[in-house]
Write a structure and sequence with these properties.
The protein is an alpha+beta fold and 334 residues long. Helix content is 34%, strand content 23%. The chain contains eight helices and twelve strands. The strands form two sheets. The chain has a six-stranded mixed sheet. The chain has a six-stranded mixed sheet with strand order 5-6-7-8-10-9. Strand 6 (198-207) and strand 7 form a beta hairpin. Helix 1 packs antiparallel against helix 3 and helix 3 (49-66) packs antiparallel against helix 4 (72-92). The longest helix is centred in the first third of the chain and has 33 residues, at 2-34. The chain starts with a helix and ends with a strand. Mean pLDDT is 90; it is low at 1-6.
Length: 334
């Protein structure tokens, strides 16, 4: 009698754990279909996709540990978890690219680095320098952080252009074109503690890929705000701002994870020809925040039709809360 009661308890526990595993798979599928279309959904979407699959495996393992009888639902959940992990590894991380010979990161026609310093002070900016980078785009540098030491790492004096909160240090001539804040026309300036988001446009002249138009963006970071609403306001602000010609390259801290509907909405509203550089040339999770354990890819590079990305990688700068992204591009074949 005692054995039957114990078996019944184990059976109910195993079924509950299996149901939890199936629920994790259902959330995985729904989050990929709906992404961040609503505020309540973006919390689910921001959970790394692999975590739902890993959670499924863990719950299945616990179910099997307390009741080793064969259960079709448990087997189906395990198969689903394996498929989900395969989707993440292949569709999100592009792991299949590791099977092919990678082109070297050095000697690229044009290589750009973007880093959001998030107002952190850096005593020696030269530690951000990399030997294969031609253009540095720094966002939100502390007013106490000087970039002269970074500029001295170039063989020849570089060109510098800036508009708050962005600084561009370039091997080639660079000039500021325009800048905008993500707020409606006529709307008053936000309070100092409110981050509305900003964007700036620059021109890069005489690069191996030709003259390029560069956009740099910094989206608001408040996780309570709707990503869809932020993307809408950003698209409207840039579309109505003067001196924002169609971009060849867009980099920045979007505070939106890769694959989000809000990110696609921003692209559709500003420059429909833009493509995700990681999807075309990246490898691995390419997370950028937080720097010690980069679970979320929120810093991105988008390329226009005139460019072809050769490589996109992340770099730990050793300072700040973000990892840097480095994108190498060349002129696209006609």
């Amino acid at each position: 009698m005692r054995g039957r009661r114990q078996t019944g308890w184990r059976g109910r526990g195993a079924r509950a754990l299996t149901a939890g595993a199936v629920a994790c798979l259902a959330i995985f599928v729904l989050s990929r279909l709906l992404t961040d279309r609503a505020v309540v959904l973006q919390w689910v979407w921001w959970t790394p996709s692999w975590a739902w699959a890993a959670g499924t495996v863990g719950l299945v393992a616990m179910s099997w540990a307390i009741d080793r009888r064969r259960r079709p639902a448990r087997r189906a959940a395990l198969v689903g978890a394996v498929v989900a992990l395969g989707v993440v590894i292949c569709a999100d991380w592009r792991a299949y690219r590791a099977l092919f010979a990678a082109r070297p990161d050095s000697g690229l026609p044009a290589s750009l680095l973007f880093l959001n310093l998030a107002a952190e002070r850096i005593d020696d900016a030269s530690e951000l320098a990399l030997p294969d980078v031609d253009v540095y785009i720094i966002a939100n540098a502390s007013s106490a952080t000087g970039l002269d030491s970074l500029a001295r790492r170039f063989d020849e004096p570089p060109f510098v252009a800036h508009t708050w909160p962005f600084v561009v240090v370039s091997r080639w001539p660079v000039a500021r074109l325009g800048a905008t804040v993500f707020r409606a026309h006529g709307e008053p300036d936000p309070p100092s503690d409110d981050d509305p988001g900003r964007a700036a446009a620059f021109s890069l002249e005489g690069t191996p890929a030709g003259d390029l138009t560069l956009w740099v963006v910094d989206f608001p970071s408040d996780p309570r705000r709707s990503r869809m609403e932020i993307a809408r306001r950003a698209g409207e602000a840039i579309a109505s701002a003067p001196r924002f010609p169609a971009p060849d390259l867009v980099v920045g801290d979007f505070n939106i994870t890769r694959g989000s509907h809000s990110l696609r909405r921003f692209v559709a509203a500003t420059a429909p020809g833009l493509r995700d550089a990681h999807a075309l040339a990246g490898l691995g999770p390419a997370g950028t925040w937080p720097r010690p354990a980069p679970l979320w890819p929120i810093d991105h590079a988008l390329v226009g039709p005139r460019l072809r990305p050769i490589v996109l990688r992340t770099v730990d700068p050793g300072v700040g809360s973000h990892r840097a992204i480095v994108v190498g591009v060349e002129r696209a074949a006609r």
